[in-house]
Design brief:
It contains one helix and 16 strands. The chain has about 240 residues and is mainly beta. Strands 1, 4, 5, 8, 10, 13, 14 and 16 form an eight-stranded mixed β-sheet that branches. Strands 3-2-9-15-11-12 form a six-stranded antiparallel β-sheet, with no helix packed on it. Strands 6-7 form a two-stranded antiparallel ribbon. Strand 6 and strand 7 form a beta hairpin. It starts with a helix and ends with a strand.
């Protein structure tokens, strides 16, 4: 007959590897924060790691006042939307650009000019001169305590307006330092240029700022409508 104490000891020894494996799996669990999550986020006073900005030549960030849900609606947060031409009013008013749209639906959406915004994606448009769009993510603490230590982008960025223009440049900045980036060419000869975000990881901690910056390719922002799809993955 087995001694109760020895049986208990064997059970504890057998359980330790299982508990360690569970702990490691929990600790290593990745969390994805989609670009459209909680839109319009901090710009509308909503608690969220996401915020949407414009940045000029002096490098000063300013929260964008104009954020648009798709399908188009007269937002109670920004009632001025109701005075604009539905779905594409800002394109016809350069003084209201840069702008960020978000297709928060599960269907692709098409504007009245034929541009298709993929489902669950942002659509951004930088401004003329040096008016960048900055989609900012500030790394939060883990939901159950502790800090994330690494991050990476998952998804893609693409030119949406094939009717003309000279494209945009884009880059990822971590705490103000450029990590990587590229150029999307937009001409009739090269329609819908796109890029997949690298799988490269970067070090983070609570409070780290991660910026996706979309800029005109030079001073001309004509036809610079760009989609941003995917998420930031924290671990």
């Amino acid at each position: 007959m087995s001694h109760p104490l020895k049986a208990s000891q064997r059970f504890v020894r057998a359980s330790i590897p299982v508990l360690v494996a569970v702990l490691l799996a929990t600790t290593a669990h990745a969390a994805s924060y989609r670009f459209v999550e909680s839109f319009p986020a901090a710009n509308a006073g909503i608690s969220s790691p996401w915020s949407y900005h414009r940045r000029g030549a002096n490098q000063t960030l300013t929260l964008l006042p104009d954020l648009v849900w798709i399908p188009y609606n007269c937002s109670p947060v920004f009632p001025s939307y109701c005075s604009h031409t539905p779905s594409w009013g800002f394109q016809r008013q350069p003084d209201r650009i840069p702008v960020v749209y978000a297709n928060i639906t599960d269907q692709n959406w098409q504007s009245d000019t034929g541009i298709t915004v993929p489902r669950r994606c942002l659509m951004v448009h930088p401004g003329w001169g040096t008016k960048d769009v900055v989609v900012r993510f500030e790394v939060p603490a883990k939901p159950y305590g502790g800090s994330y230590t690494s991050g990476r982008f998952k998804g893609s960025i693409a030119d949406l307006d094939y009717l003309g223009g000279n494209g945009v440049t884009w880059r990822v900045e971590v705490n103000g330092s450029t990590l990587y980036g590229g150029t999307l060419h937009a001409t009739r000869a090269l329609p819908r240029s796109s890029a997949t975000f690298p799988t490269q990881t970067f070090n983070v901690s609570t409070g780290t700022t991660i910026d996706l910056v979309v800029s005109p390719n030079g001073a001309d922002a004509s036809f610079d409508t760009t989609s941003v799809c995917g998420a930031i993955v924290m671990q």
